[in-house]
Design a protein that fits this description.
The protein has helices at residues 7-20, 38-48, 66-84, 93-100, 105-116, 123-141, 164-173, 186-196, 214-224, 232-242, 246-262; strands at residues 27-31, 54-60, 144-150, 177-183, 204-208. By secondary structure, it is α/β, with parallel strands linked by helices. The protein has a 5-stranded parallel sheet with strand order 2-3-4-1-5, sandwiched between helices. Helix 7 (164-173) links the parallel strand 3 and strand 4 (177-183). The protein is globular. The chain starts with 6 loop residues before the first helix and ends in a 13-residue tail after the last helix.
């Protein structure tokens, strides 16, 4: 899906990440309903942001075994490091470990230890060790890290339940890593941030991501359907039907474009199309 809008948030992400390399760290939590565009926002920002001093690491939290999570975390960290350093890339954990050993040997040795130890089956232990790995990476590489955890609330559902104990400590003490947390479970996320991740230092700037307003939704539709003749009545209907959610706006516009391309007649859409 082509990204649209949210320029104020893109600028805020740039501002917070730029400040990190200057010694000011402000963690962020972006909360919003499903299909509101949280992941699209961060992935678009990641595709545009570039600073060789800052390594950006995106991790999607899933229901999975601890050792699988550990391998994905290490792989994404090392892949992002090599990409940030303009090194050759291959999405393969063996390749990434071998290549990174040339540049960050201590961090790579620690990563191998995490992945090989039997305790890799315990999520809380693995997560704590991975946070230590990020600290080691900061020290050895001399780079800052922006760690993005998508659907972070799922960590609480992995046994054991109190996975936040060591995390709170690392957030407060490791000021070279900035966290961006995403969640579609609004009430649960707020509860975790207010209770489990309530910190004296390293607190989270909370952003409640909203659907597009009517003006932005209408502009989105006109931009997507600029090659078609679409009435204001149709635009208003799509805005109302989609509730301003980017996913639905895009899906409806794509369907209309596909209908137009497949139709033998010249499209001139009216309200009757939807009846």
């Amino acid at each position: 899906m082509e990204f649209y809008g949210r320029q104020d948030l893109l600028e805020l992400l740039n501002k917070r990440s730029d400040a990190l390399s200057k010694g000011y760290r402000q963690n962020m939590a972006i909360i919003g309903a499903e299909l509101i565009g949280k992941t699209s926002l961060l992935k678009h920002w990641l595709s545009k942001y570039c600073d060789t001093r800052v390594v950006t690491v995106y991790i999607e939290i899933r229901h999975e075994e601890a050792n699988s999570f550990g391998e994905r975390f290490v792989g994404n960290l090392f892949f992002s490091f090599l990409k940030n350093s303009h090194n050759g890339l291959k999405d393969d954990i063996v390749f990434l470990l071998e290549r990174c050993a040339k540049y960050i040997p201590k961090t790579t040795a620690f990563a191998r230890k995490i992945l090989s130890e039997r305790y890799a089956r315990r999520t809380d232990v693995v997560f704590a060790k991975l946070l230590e790995l990020v600290e080691q990476f900061n020290v050895e590489s001399g780079k800052f890290c922006v760690l993005i955890l998508d659907e972070f609330h799922l960590l609480a559902q992995m046994p054991p339940k109190d996975i936040y104990a060591s995390w709170r400590k690392h957030i407060m003490l490791n000021k070279n890593t900035m966290y961006i947390l995403l969640s579609s479970k609004k009430e649960l996320a707020r509860k975790i941030l207010a209770e489990d991740l309530a910190l004296l230092f390293g607190n989270f700037e909370k952003i409640d991501l909203q659907p597009f307003d009517n003006k932005t939704s209408s502009a989105f539709i006109r931009d997507k359907l600029k090659s078609l003749s679409v009435s204001e009545q149709i635009i208003a209907f799509i805005v109302n039907f989609s509730s301003g959610k980017p996913f639905y706006l895009n899906a409806i516009c794509d369907a209309l474009m596909n209908y137009h391309l497949k139709s033998a007649r010249e499209a001139n859409l009216t309200f009757d199309f939807f009846v």
